[in-house]
Amino acid sequence: MQVIETLAQGLKRELKVVIPAKDMEARMNERLAEVKDRVRINGFRPGKVPVAHLKKVYGKSIMADLVNEIVREKPTEILTERGEKSATQPEIAMTEDEAEANKILNAEADLEFTVAYEVIPKIELKDVSGIKVVREVVDIAEDEVNDQILRIAESARTYESKKGKAANGDRVTIDYLGKVDGVAFDGGKDEDAELVLGSNRFIPGFEEQLVGVKAGDEKTITVTFPADYPAANLAGKEATFDITVKDVAAAAPLEINDELATKLGLESADKLKEIVRGQIESQYGSVTRQKVKRQILDQLDELYQFETPERLVDAEFENIWRQINTDLEQAGKTFADEETTEEEARAEYRKLAERRVRLGLVLSEIGEKAGVQVSDDEMQRSLFEQLRQFPGQEKQILDYFKNTPGAAASLRAPLFEEKVVDHLLSEISVTDKSVSKEELMADDEEADGKPATKKAPAKKKAAAKAEAAEGEEAAAPKKKAPAKKKAADESAE
């Protein structure tokens, strides 16, 4: 076998692989000898079929199998021998001339094919001990825990019917019928609907006009649907609602005690506080982690500058660009609305894609040298988390990971990345800084005192995704939209 390098430009490589016809014929004869004792051909005793006859009957099919095996396996072997890693699956090209292909299958011509690929650049790891990050930490006050508990407890709040007028915070039970231009519209009717005044659950102006009503009152109110209301036939339209008030109930006071904890399925108020505090700590911890990670990646980005494989950048850019256009479409906006142009946005996100690829390669090299591994148990837990997030779609998700090339890698990538970040945290200088929750949640640019710049739509989303430097895509089908409320609620809300 001959391997001739025909292109070595930057990271791009192209190899011409030639296997002489005599070598291919020798391999075919070996295969024929292997099957000689197994084949059954009329007119011949088992094991007595002449090789020449076997070659005539099975030669081309065996040669075709050999060609497929060589084309599938040899590129990997060749790259290993060359000490190279391909950034993506190498592209294989063979002759498309039917006559030439027949000659190869008949062992009358050499097997030739080309292998085109981009190499992953060799990365010489640098000392990271000079990297310094500030880890912002929030001290969680007891009042914040209690406020969060009370918000959670709203779902367990009880109401008692009262005499007199409804006030904000009271719950009214109503029947209503909505009309536009005097004609009832679909989804504009409901009976025994419960509405807490001041909850802003219904469209603007609806709840305010019910303040002061009493049980037994009948009232017609007029409201205007918002211009951006999802139902196009109602958006911006004035509507009337004929309302019958059936009950007015006052909210029972909420107290953080063992009784409330029991209603929420816990044994005590102390346990409830412990769980809520843990949830708040986890929320703040995620933001802290993201900010620390951003600092690490920004400093790695300054340390490492090298040519990135174009195909990886192209793929990453397409992922980002697809998301940007989806966000634009959902928002009903154009690039002009975001004070930019498509050309400027493309250039900006191309740089973002290059950064993500470069940092992904750096993190991969750091992790490999540090012996970072993702265990089967960690992969299973990650898969279970995917299943938990999409109830009712378990089979589709399992099928997706089983049948989709690269799906398992999309699970592994973020796990690997987080473990590499953990490794780096043990190697760099980390200083803790107590901050308020407002400071922690502040936008990075504002917190750093940097001037705001024009941003293409969803810039923050894309920038956040850039911190996931390996550029993994969503690993499971999109979550289904939640079941809609009753049509009447949907129209009035």
From TrEMBL:
Keyword ATP-binding: no
Cellular component aspect of the GO annotation: cytoplasm
The keyword Ribosomal protein is annotated on this UniProt entry: no
Enzyme nomenclature, EC number: 5.2.1.8
Domain PPIase FKBP-type, chain residue ranges per copy: 169-270
Top EC group: isomerase
Listed Basic residues bias regions: 452-463
InterPro entries: PPIase_dom_sf, PPIase_FKBP_dom, Trig_fac, Trigger_fac_C, Trigger_fac_C_sf, Trigger_fac_ribosome-bd_bac, Trigger_fac_ribosome-bd_sf, Trigger_fact/SurA_dom_sf
BP terms from Gene Ontology: 'de novo' cotranslational protein folding; cell division; protein transport; protein unfolding
A Pfam family that the UniProt record links to this protein: FKBP_C
Record key words, sorted: Cell cycle, Cell division, Chaperone, Cytoplasm, Isomerase, Rotamase
Superkingdom classification of source: Bacteria
GO molecular function: peptidyl-prolyl cis-trans isomerase activity; protein folding chaperone; ribosome binding
Localization per Swiss-Prot or TrEMBL: Cytoplasm
Region (Disordered): 432-493
Catalytic activity: [protein]-peptidylproline (omega=180) = [protein]-peptidylproline (omega=0)
NCBIfam families for the chain: tig
Family of this protein: Belongs to the FKBP-type PPIase family. Tig subfamily.
UniProt comment concerning the protein's domains: Consists of 3 domains; the N-terminus binds the ribosome, the middle domain has PPIase activity, while the C-terminus has intrinsic chaperone activity on its own.
Protein name (record): Trigger factor
